[in-house]
Amino acid sequence: MKAIGRGLVAGAMGDVMLNAATYVDMAVTGRPASNTPGETVRKTAEALGLRLPDDSHRLEAYGALGGFAVGLGLGVVVSVARSAGLRLPAPLGAAVIGGLAMAASDGGMMINGVTDPRQWTAADWLRDVIPHLAYGAGVHYALYRIDASP
Fold first, then answer.
1. Which positions ≥6 away from 118 have C-beta within 8 Å?
2. How many independent structural domains does the chain possess?
3. What's the chain's Rg over C-alpha atoms?
4. Is the entire prediction scored with pTM above 0.85?
């Protein structure tokens, strides 16, 4: 049970870091929020036989909630792996966790036909990689600090 609670805290820290990196990018570049996370949640719900209202405001909320769910869930997975003895140095740990987060979120988008990363530009990839690395760094750091506390 300790691994689950620790993972939820670490996942929350990662979610904060990912969202901060994303919103800094949006503030600096002036780009709007992406609708792909919300579309992914909507299409996943449809595949499960659920019909969600799909106005733009709800889609944005679905995307945020789906992102939190992925971030918290992955935090738990990483915490359980850490409890089983997997320990990676900080740079590698942040990169691996960030890569897992990217695979989880982008994989769902690909499966649902919302986006195709093969068509992304270098700027698109950078906008995806940096926040996910921030997520990985946040999760890794939180787990390290929790484990180091008395």
1. none
2. 1
3. 16
4. yes
Range of the domain at 127: 2-148
pLDDT tens, residue order, the chain (150 aa): 799 999 999 999 999 999 999 999 999 999 999 999 999 999 999 999 999 888 889 999 999 999 999 999 999 999 999 999 999 999 999 999 999 999 999 999 999 999 999 999 999 999 999 999 999 999 999 999 999 887
82, 145 contact by CB (below 8 A): no
Residue 114 carries which DSSP code?
S
> Which residue stretches of the chain are H helix?
2-29, 36-47, 56-83, 90-111, 122-148
DSSP state of 33: P
The token duo for 121 is: 């530009």
Q: How is residue 108 written in tokens? A: 């769902």
CB contact burial 37-55 (16+ within 10 A = b; e otherwise): bbbbbbbbeeeeeeeeeee
CA nearest neighbour of 11 among 3, 89, 92? 3
